[in-house]
Amino acid sequence: MASSNTRQRKLARAKVDRQLARRADQERRSRQLKAVFGGLLALALVGVLGAWTLGAFDEKPAETVAETCPWNPLDVSANANLKDVGKPAATGMPESGTSAMTVAFGSGNVVAELDRTNAPCGAASLKYLADSGFYNDTKCHELTHGDGAFALACGDPSGTGTGGAAYSWWNENAPADAPAADPSAAAAATSGASPSTGTTPAASPSAATAVRYPAGTVAMLPNISGSQFLIFYQDSTTATNYSIVGKLTSGLDVVKKIAQAGTTANEAGADTKPKQDVVIKTLTVVDTTAPATTPSAPATPAPSGSAPAPKPSASAPAAKPSASASAAS
Q: Residue 211 and residue 309: Cα distance in Å, rounded?
């Protein structure tokens, strides 16, 4: 009987020992897991702290994309002849190849190749306005025929020469100035034939006689408005720096016939208003993907070291041209 009780006590004691051992084992594993999680948490905190120190959580500034054509808004309240028609996109316009511009006059169509490589802003402005129908059923307001400027001016529905779309941009692709006369060539010309060739060299053209806008040139004066453009129907030597935006591929004869119809005095008294109404029925611009084979470059090379034309201030509106300046343009 005593041995039976002893055996039961031993079994009970062994059971308690096993329970204590399992409990101790569980506590040991719990401590190990806590230690592992604690270490991982500490590493995470160190990483977060390091990233914060290095500025990983600082607010990132918004990326700015350089504007190809930062359009300058013009004040319509200061010039009632301007028309607010919005502005083209400042980025994303094609900057290579050409566009085809078709101007439908009552007397025939004129087709021009716009140079998107050298005049991307002018080409983009013409397409933007053409797509909105801005030019449809508008009159060309000016026909110059003197002082070295022979051009038909369009794109100002007010007819004053100071109106149009209420935005502008800086001049681009302006023609080069004529080269200065070569002293040696001039001396040879006055002394007779060249001893080496036996011929008399031609004198270099002067700035007053050099062709800056060949017949068929399409140009714009962007500091007046974003819509006015000119089509030169005769070689011109004017010193005004227009932006050369393209050239005619057909229809020069149509513009010449318009010029032959003559002019009359405009409101300012200048003899530059077409005698017969010159109405643009429609004007369309279609982008092409072909690269520009013959860019609308100046007839003479730009002198080395010449500075580009300054961009107008975004805060200062373009000045209104005087009546004499309008006549010369």
A: 20
pLDDT in tens, 266-318: 888 899 999 999 999 999 999 885 544 444 444 444 443 333 444 443 333 34
What is the rounded distance in angstroms from the CA atom of residue 187 to the CA atom of residue 229? 42
Tokens describing residue 292: 């520009």
Q: In what order do the strands lie in the sheet with 108-115?
A: 138-139, 279-287, 98-105, 108-115, 243-250, 217-220, 229-232, 149-154, 142-146
Q: Which two tokens stand for residue 284?
A: 């369309």
- Cβ–Cβ under 8 Å, residues 246 and 216: no
pTM, entire model: 0.64
Measured CA to CA, the distance from residue 245 to residue 248 in angstroms comes to 10
8 A C-beta contact, residue 98 and residue 113? yes
Beta-sheet pairing, 164-165 with 167-168? unpaired
Residues 220-240 pLDDT 10s: 988 889 999 999 999 999 999
Max intra-chain CA distance, the chain: 155
User: Closest Cα partner for 163 from 254, 247, 267, 259?
Assistant: 267
Rounded-to-integer distance, Cα 44 and Cα 320, Å: 66
What is the spatial distance between Cα 260 and Cα 274, in angstroms, rounded to a whole number?
10
